[in-house]
Amino acid sequence: MRDKESGRSGRPRSFDVDAALELGQRLFHERGYDGVSLADLTHALGIAAPSFYAAFDSKAAFFQKILGRHASATPPFDEFLIEGHPIATAIEQFLVARAVTYSEQALAKGCLVLEATHNCSDPSALSAAEQIAEDGRLHMRDLLAKSRPDLSEPISDLVASMMHGLSALARQGWSTDRLVAAARNSALSVRAMVENAKPGAPGGSAAT
Amino acid sequence: MRDKESGRSGRPRSFDVDAALELGQRLFHERGYDGVSLADLTHALGIAAPSFYAAFDSKAAFFQKILGRHASATPPFDEFLIEGHPIATAIEQFLVARAVTYSEQALAKGCLVLEATHNCSDPSALSAAEQIAEDGRLHMRDLLAKSRPDLSEPISDLVASMMHGLSALARQGWSTDRLVAAARNSALSVRAMVENAKPGAPGGSAAT
DNA sequence: GCAATTTTTTAGTGCTTGATAAATATCCCA
DNA sequence: TGGGATATTTATCAAGCACTAAAAAATTGC
């Protein structure tokens, strides 16, 4: 059983698979899953349809490969949650970073995961994207639960909602400043939630 | 120049235009603009395509008629903003009402205006919906500006973002309770904004 | 050089899309 | 009774969709 491309027989592939994934990611991000046709993809890649299917099986499988590629290149919430620092600050910086990311590119506005399959006709592409978004929320929830199990659910829910909102409005052309301001203001809720409902025994461990 | 259907000549229409708009609204709400084909519409209405086009000109025009119909049946922000009552309370109750509306129907989840044209292929339908959403935000902003011109923009922006978030998550099946909790928590931001940035001269008029 | 393997090119498949031309049916009014 | 107006039915239309069968081309190992 041989793997990789080393020493396998047959006609060599005429295009770079990884470059194709990157180009596909850009197109899906710009126009959404249904907004990119197979003709769009093959034309942009300079290949014919059968070459595409030989390499990726289907449009949906191609998209899901892109999703995985994207997920492993996105900074997780861990990087924002620092022991001893307030939770509200971590949430604020996380959402601000998202607001910047969502609006910094000229064409690929918003979140690829949240936008590409919004109102998507393909159920498999939709559920794959929803699963990634949910995994991200659960990851944030579990991290928050270490210091504030009572607030981990409501905070991660609120953040999920704001991410959808920021993404949608970024796609409508809102400026980075405007989105960042909304992100900052929404984090005020987290500060209030933390202060209003103090934990029973403050003998916990990590963040405030 | 005759109007309405009173006393105009010609073969009478075989279906009720208003019932068609209502049925179309339900379908567009459930499946989005691109998710409802003309065949879907004409089959559901029990008519043939030319009858549809004779009455509504095009799919996009039909949809825009539905949008107008929907907008004039949606409670505006005025009903929530009461003189002498805190702004944060008005925002909270407004968002809670939206959270309930977005999740109460079994199939037509989320906001028709925000969801039906999300990633929509038809630019005219998209811009019509975006205009209605923006008009709503501007209306809220102008009402808020009467008492707090310094906060009218950031608050209405935050609310716009939360509406998108609540709508998207309602569409994913989140329960009413969960959405209402997120709405309530997001309103804590508004309370904080109002308290943190007191107006210079409190000699204003309406809400706090 | 030959067989095996893989990808390429070429030319389609069947299906769905929004929208329509032409002929027919049904109404009002004179 | 007939003309004008409007809506109906029937039968399409061209374009786009994701996808593929078949054969030719390019590589490897022998």
Strand content of chain A: under 5%
**What is the number of beta strands of chain A?**
0
Distance between the termini of chain A: 53 Å
Tell me the helix content of chain A.
55-70%
Q: Could you tell me the radius of gyration of chain A in angstroms?
A: 20 Å
Order of helices and strands of chain A: HHHHHHHHH
Low-confidence blocks of residues of chain A: 1-5, 201-206
Q: What is this structure, in a nutshell?
A:
The first copy, chain A, is mainly alpha-helical and 208 residues long. Helices cover 62% and strands 0% of the residues of chain A.
Could you name the key traits of this structure?
DNA-binding; homodimer; mainly alpha; disordered C terminus; 208 residues; disordered N terminus; 0% strand; Arc Repressor Mutant, subunit A; Tetracycline Repressor, domain 2
